[in-house]
Amino acid sequence: MGAHSRKCDWCGSGTPIVRDMEPVNPAFQYWCEECARALIIKGDPIETYRELDGEPIYGRLLDEHCTLKRFYSFATA
């Protein structure tokens, strides 16, 4: 199934913008913008990720909402 036809694994309705490449729970790999923003604000951002739309939407969310800067990895494979 392609990422474009998936739904957010958390809310079940949003279109995913990012995939967690090292998920703690494999059932939650794909995140829509709203759920990804909530993760960042909660203080539990995705550290190794792949942007799904080709635009750095998740990267912008990290810049806007992440107060604790960590080392993030953009997966290219």
TrEMBL record:
It comes from the Bacteria. This is Uncharacterized protein. The lineage of its organism: Bacteria, Bacillati, Actinomycetota, Actinomycetes, Kitasatosporales.
